[in-house]
Amino acid sequence: MPLTDKLGRRITDLRVSITDRCNYRCVYCRSGEEDVPFSELPIADYVRLVRVFVSLGIEKVRITGGEPLLRRELLPMIEQLSSMTTAGSGKPLDVAITTNGHLLAKLAQPLRDAGLSRVTVSMDAVDPAKFARITRVANGYEAVVAGIRAAKRVGLEPVKINAVIMRGFNEDQIADFARFSRDEGVIVRFIEFMPLEEGRVWAPDVVLGYNEMLDILNSYRSLVPLPPTTIGETAMRYTFDDGVGEVGIIAPVSRAFCGACSRVRLTSDGKIRTCLFSQSDHDLYGVLQRGGTDADLAAFIEATIQKKEARHHIGEPGFLKPSRSMVHIGG
Predict the structure, then answer these.
(1) Which CATH number goes with the domain that contains 246?
(2) What is the pLDDT of residues 40-49, one digit of tens each?
């Protein structure tokens, strides 16, 4: 039987954070403190936990962080994951990664050789000065662009760029990102700012919503809608009137897509989160540490999936920000 929650949503996508360390200090994510404790499990333990998820019907695994390229054992992990097949269909597991791209230029070919399917790069400005202000890292822009081009060159496609947009901060980058999509042959997805930051600076008036982003893009060049590629796709996709380039808008605040959610997350310390905005974790790694068998792990996963929330409550009276920030949950 497929892994299905109490609302009948089939869970096919797993996001696995393998570290909450990061070499960037993005203003919408980190507080800016230099010495922050981090948590990581042995790579072999992540692989075992993923294998159990895959035995229950997970079809796609995305490796996240923090910054996953900081883990030295990443390549052997990808080799092991890419050799797995999805229960029932026997299809190869789809393995992707989300990275800030800073180390990608040197690792693109080894990642591809290890079996990685695709890469998504988190990048919030195409202006080098603004990029440095957002990331708090000097001279990072050139490294990230080199990484994007290397990923394309070795076939880690489609290369996607995720840009978190904040009002009064980087909305002036939207048209420039559209141009970047067309010039570089990558997909750019604009993401509404969510209340997941360490510094707790989120407020409704900082969110640049779907309609405003759409207006800016249309003022650059007329958009043409594209059909969704999967049932649970989070981005509303567009090309331009000449068919060159692709952009998308992910609008979890103004246009929630919870009804078709197919995701579950595993944090870097081995806890299941059934929603980004959960107020609690479910300690899967604790089962492993207590000597649990794969059957015990599978039973825990199946029971936890039945606790998956129907939706988030951003913007509603009484909404509480999640118990952990994004860097500790995993992107």
Answers:
(1) 3.20.20.70
(2) 999 999 999 9
